[in-house]
Structure prediction request, 782 residues.
Amino acid sequence: MNGRILEVLEYNKIIAQLMEHTASSLGKEKTSALKPSIHLEEVVKLQNETDEAAQVLRLKGHVPLGGIFDIKPSIKRTMIGGILSAMECLDVASTIYGGRQLKRFIEDMEEPEMPILRELIDGLVPLTELERRIKSCVDEHGTVMDGASERLRTIRSRIRTSESRVRDKLDGYTKSKTKMLSDAIVTIRNERYVLPVKQEYRGSIGGIVHDQSASGATLFIEPQSVVDVNNQLQQARVEEKQEVERILAELSQAVAEEQSSLYKNVDILGHIDFMFSRAKLGASMKASMPVMNNEGRVNIKQARHPLIPPQEVVPNDIEIGGEFNSIVITGPNTGGKTVTLKLLGLFTLMAQSGLQVPAMDGGELAVFEQVFADIGDEQSIEQSLSTFSSHMTNIVEILKHVNSRTLVLFDELGAGTDPQEGAALAMAILDEVVRREARVIATTHYPELKAYGYNREGVVNASVEFDIQTLKPTYRLLIGVPGRSNAFEISSRLGLEESIIETAKQHVGVDSQSVENMIASLEASTREAEKDYEKAALKLEESEQLHKELQDQWKQFEEKKEKLYKKAEEKAEKAIRKAREEAEEIVNEIRNMKNSAELKEHEWIEARKMLDDAQPQLSSKEKRKQTITSSQPQKELKSGDEVKLLTLNQQGTIVDQTGDNEFQVQVGMMKVKAKRKDIEFVKSKQPVNEKPMATVRGKSHHVKPELDLRGERYEDALKQLEKYVDDALLAGYPTVSIIHGKGTGALRTAVQNYAKKHRSISSFRFGGMNEGGSGVTVLELK
Prediction:
């Protein structure tokens, strides 16, 4: 793109606005160098970058880009042995920190997908050690801290001591020699502490004179008594300066060692700042990302000129490159035609620079190799050219470069010369540009060009609407409707006599009058069509709003229904839980009475099963999900299959099928009847080689001589204890140990109560010192 077109279309004003949204000098540097690209791939990439940044801003409202500096000059200086100042070192550390904060910010975002940003931040090198090293030496004000080295701490301690001694001595003078001093203060001259002594008392104080006042009445004297201490102070300051320079030299060397990573980080951070500045500009303009193409196709809706205040701008639809490649905007000079030209040109330059444009979403713009414009009065005084000559010189230069990938904007084509010749010349120029398949928009006030669009393929007429009632332009672009002069209507509105207007109309040719009437009819039809469209759009919007409200109400109904379900289920579950607790107490009492009442084991298990079956089926989503899952085809069970009895939460083996959906299950020493819905398949019976021999369990059986119940629930512990005692009796053990721990004593009491009532347990006792003490109960078996 040539520099002249950027100036004519005021592209530089957009760049100035973009500058205001950059967060660092790195972003400003890239912004100042921004120029439109003529390559579709590059433009699409730039647009995608801006769109990603815009999505982040919409979701988060901000991005942490503070504390980032252009440290490239500092890095370059360290590479040739230069020493950075403390503030320059701090800028390096701040930039490293800023990059790390930005990296964490992007990584913590789950939405949206950000392939470009994530790839960029993946390239950032943390450099945490260099940052830590700089910040351990330099404070936030850019001063080397005492703790930067042990030697610097010692030197500064000496400096403070010397300063205190000098001040103490000089304060003594200010108190005892007040009459000899111009002012009772201690001041500094030539970096040494001095007193302001009156001229006449020079000999009384004695010492070295460092300066005098403008009048000569006051001498700034360093008393002899503080000369030595001041000398020590000066020497300490020299040593301090040398030590600070040494520390900064080490830090500069550390920066030089990481120069490659630092350059890379700076480039990435500058690029990200540049991306977000484009996104911020788009947000301020309420802009959207256009779809880019290489076919010269433009179709944008509700486009607003970005340099016109929002309260004044009039949105317009612009389309070119589809059914027609040229637009001829006719009509009187109302100001709206030139704005339309500049709008399309500026939108093209912005889009090809990766900037979003202020228009409705889904707009389409083309990538042009060149944009040419001949706009405004350009009379050349230096070259002694008239307005017409200046325009024609520009047009001649434009025609040298026009091709199918060119956008050409002509303002008042053919103006400045004889109307008939100007109109003929304008049509010839347009014919040539159209022949070369360029995209062109031209404005003119010549009536001869009104019929141009009807006689040329690929050319369409357009006009800028004018309100006869207010005598002002509305700035609305009407594509397909040529402009008319409105001279008679305007004159009538301004009070010109009707007879004069009628006489004027008689001088207008019949053909011209017919064209004007046709245009008026077209304008009226267009306005009616737009009104109908607006009404339809309003109805559609109302329907969509109603549909959304119904969806919201249905969603609220479903949520309310689910809450009621859940509340009812919680209430039911609470009642069931209470009933089960009471039932558990009854079962425990039955268990304790088992031996004396001769209650059989399978009878109380059946009673427990009946309690479980009494629980109602609840209708929550989770329960319904379980029902759906359980309704899936069940595996066929057969004798010998290992299964889990859901009501007892115990594993057992299928003994026999006693009914259609009923099975007898062996659980330990007991046989229990259960429904198919209460049985969960575990695994099939493993085939074994049957041998016709009996198996006798003896003392070598796998049953251990002890049972550990620690950590078990009360009910589960009793079940394990019952089974274990039966197994131990079969194994023939004379004594067994039950490990229940000390704890609260609940398990110990339960074990001993069980032992008292079991007829096969002759006695029991606590374990001995080497058996576990009171944490173990030893049972003597019959």
User: Anything to note?
Assistant: The first strand starts at residue 187 and ends at 189. The domain at 706-781 is CATH 3.30.1370.110 (Ribosomal Protein S8; Chain: A, domain 1). DSSP finds 24 helices and 23 strands in the chain.
